[in-house]
Amino acid sequence: MNIFSILIPKHTLTYLNANDPLDQAVAFLLGATYTAIPVVDDQGRYVGIASEGDFLRAVMEHGRENLAKYKVADIVNKDEGAKVLNTVEKDEIMERILDRNFLCVVDDRDCFIGIITRKSIILYLKN
């Protein structure tokens, strides 16, 4: 499996910066259709994934009016299992995608380069 044939590249995706204010990220996600979104640092390296649940917990814990005091980095899920190298083998992709809607793909410097979705894998295997 050529991962690049199913990769959705970073420049076509929406993602958050770990230093983004939490209130702005919540406002953005309220208008989006995403349930989870990749998070990168200022150098473009993968930090983790922020999900609706992560944002909801932050709102419940701190109150929406206090979210400006926090950054996305404060709530991000640093699940390393949601990240794969661009040289990953098919078996590992299949194992990891079972529990997720998408996997974040990084290069050997840990820079985020895009995602592969469960749907893109299924469509690839269908052909």
Automatic annotation (TrEMBL):
Entries under InterPro entries matching the protein: CBS_dom, CBS_dom_sf, Diverse_CBS-Domain
SUPFAM superfamilies per the UniProt record, alphabetical: CBS-domain pair
Keyword Metal-binding in annotation: no
Superkingdom of origin organism: Bacteria
Keyword check for Metal-binding: no
Keywords per UniProt: CBS domain
CBS domain mapped to chain residues: 7-66
PANTHER family cross-referenced by the UniProt entry: CBS DOMAIN-CONTAINING PROTEIN, CBS DOMAIN-CONTAINING PROTEIN CBSX3, MITOCHONDRIAL
Name the UniProt record assigns to this protein: CBS domain-containing protein
Source organism phylogeny: Bacteria, Bacillati, Bacillota, Clostridia, Lachnospirales
